[in-house]
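sorry for the late reply, my laptop died twice this morning and i had to redo everyting from scratch. anyway the thing you sent over, i finally got around to it. pasting the sequence first so we're on the same page, its 354 residues, then the predicted structure underneath. double check i copied it right bc i was rushing
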Amino acid sequence: IAVDAPSWSTAGAPQTSKQSAAQPPPPPPPLSPPPSPSSTSTTTVPTPTPARRTEASPAVRRVAKELDVDISNVVGTGPGGRVLKTDVEVFAKSGGRTPSKINAAPASPSPQPRREDAGTVVPLQKYQRAMAKAMEAAASVPRFTLCDDVDVTAMMAACARANAKALEGDIKLTTMPFVIKALSLALARYPELNVHYDADNVALIRFDEHRIGMAVATPHGLAVPTLRLTPEHSLRHIAAEVARLANDARNLRLREEDVVMPTVTVSNFGAIRGGSGHYASPVVVPPSIAIVAIGATRDALVPSAEDPTATVRRSLAPISWSADHRACDGAQLTLLNGAWKALCEDPLDILLAQ
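ok and here's the structure:
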């Protein structure tokens, strides 16, 4: 509070020429009394507002301490702004930049490449930015991989027969609806794998519906819409959803309910025209617990089921699983793969299950 200090008065009593030079000068007048509180100008100092406590679990705070991160500076992406473990890890790896700064959209709706001394800087597009953030979170997942071959000879023949009998305007049937339907039926047999892994609480979140992600390559980057199914959903329904989601992803029309996090994802990279590849090591994006990648189908000679001494030509699809070892162990994934593979190799069982 600023208060003017009282001043000394320098004006003495009036002097005349008759006053003696030896006469001592009159004493200075007493100090002026300090101004009364009522007449003093005051400034109100606001009381500081206590800082809002950052919402985070003890486990997340422990991670922040280990990474030397001030958790109050981290922007939370959980419910109600809650800070998750992945938020802390992304913050630490980004050198202290917030997710909004890392994934900020370019000012122009159609960003143009710009030249730098070291090359041309090309901003990431919408799906690419989302995938980049997801991959940063995936780096924390302790995953393991399982590879196998699936005989899709009968499945491909069933698709060909169904399309030959399809009426004009009917949706063309591909192997993807069979694959997804088989996975839904396998998850019904092993519901303990139809889960999300909650890293903050070290727990599993189980769902009644089967949330199966489907990787879609688009001109805007990789998108992963989710089918929300039950074992009762028909193959025709799944085929229609696969077609709709793929089309909406390519045209940037996916709805909020189409992009919920899946429990298991299917990536059919072998279907990409002009591409090549068989096995892979797919990445698990939390809180999902598994992903299966299907490579390019190849013809191969395999032992005949009727005569082991003879060989027959079959169409084999190489498949590669990755799973989060915190939520799924090797035995569980082997059983899920076995159930799913058996259904894929005999599509009649898929049709009878409807």
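Residues 1-22, 36-43, 97-108 have pLDDT under 50 and may be disordered.
thats about all i looked at so far, will dig more tmrw
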